[in-house]
Amino acid sequence: MVHHQGCTMEEDARDKCPPKFWRKTLTAPAPFADETSCQCQAPHEKLTIAQARLGTPVDRPVRVYADGIFDLFHSGHARALMQAKTLFPNSYLLVGVCSDDLTHKFKGFTVMNEAERYEALRHCRYVDEVIRDAPWTLTPEFLEKHKIDFVAHDDIPYSSAGSDDVYKHIKEAGMFIPTQRTEGISTSDIITRIVRDYDVYARRNLQRGYTAKELNVSFINEKKYRFQNQVDKMKEKVKNVEERSKEFVNRVEEKSHDLIQKWEEKSREFIGNFLELFGPDGAWKQMFQERSSRMLQAFSPKQSPVSSPTRSRSPSRSPSPTFSWLPIKTSPPSSPKAASASISSMSEGDEDEK
Fold first, then answer.
1. Of 94, 197, 222, 258, whose CB count within 10 A is highest?
2. Which domain holds residue 260?
3. Taking CA 349 as the corner, what is the angle to CA 346 and CA 350, rounded to the nearest 5 degrees?
4. CATH number where 106 lies
5. Same structural domain for residues 178 and 75?
6. What total of structural domains would you count in the chain?
7. Within a domain: residue 308?
8. 171 shares its domain with 222
9. pLDDT by residue (tens digit) across 273-305?
């Protein structure tokens, strides 16, 4: 842990700076260089990169400087500062931030003003000290004033202010250490996204209560954006109704499936009971057969006993079958005389049989 201007928190260095200037990196913002009078009392000797990587000198941290615009502070900035902070076992990271005047002159307009950019850097965990209104090109006087050992920046030549590479003299002095850029993220990329989706952000901010004047939106565009917001609301409502309808249909399908499953179970149970009762080997057939056999027994004549006596018949005369049980059709007599004649003839026939 380090505190302002590079003094360590070891026992032999605590008496060189008052406790009010000690900085705890994770619990307090980094101080501004021009707001404190605490100066590093340790001797400042020129170091080589090899010495710094071995952890020497032991009485002070290696002072590393990184500068930039840091507009729309993002993860690419933070990763570059993390690399600068971890270059050596014991390092103190100073970050220089250029002012609005220098930035607008040499690079272009910024989204965040200089006060916002300064404050953003103070709350990065890797930063030990923030230098406001940093120079565009590093001079020997600036390096000596802040006792800078090394400068960390990406190795791409940075052409600006009439120079092909503003870090050329730093590289020739052996004080430059390159860092790696983070692919896929940059301030220009973020601004490009905003410009590309300008209509979306304008509509969003109008919906949140910003006025057309604040957004620099014309009267016609304001009406168009508000109409589009109303259309989006209607689409959202329709989408919600569709989702609810789908949920209702899904519930109905689940209920229908349950009902069909229960109906199939009841049908199988009914068919099983029906076959058990009326099938080929069912109880109804057995009961019908039993009743049929009983009825046949009831209607069939009983056989005469074997020991019953038989009537003797004369061998000369064959018995004539009697059909007493068959009905005899007789025509009614046409007159009383005919009736008496038929009666006398029947009596004569009986006498002959006798």
1. 94
2. 188-292
3. 90
4. 3.40.50.620
5. yes
6. 2
7. no
8. no
9. 777 777 676 676 677 777 777 777 777 766 555
Helix 198-207, helix 219-278: angle, nearest 10: 90
- pLDDT tens profile 227-275: 777 787 788 888 888 888 888 888 888 888 888 888 888 888 888 777 7
Among 185, 207, 242, which residue terminates a domain?
Answer: 185
Tally Cβ neighbours within 10 Å of residue 24.
Answer: 10
State both tokens at 104.
Answer: 């607008």
Q: pTM for this structure? A: 0.58
Domain assignment of residue 96, yes or no? yes
- Give domain status of residue 28, yes or no: no
- Written as one letter, the residue type at 216 is N
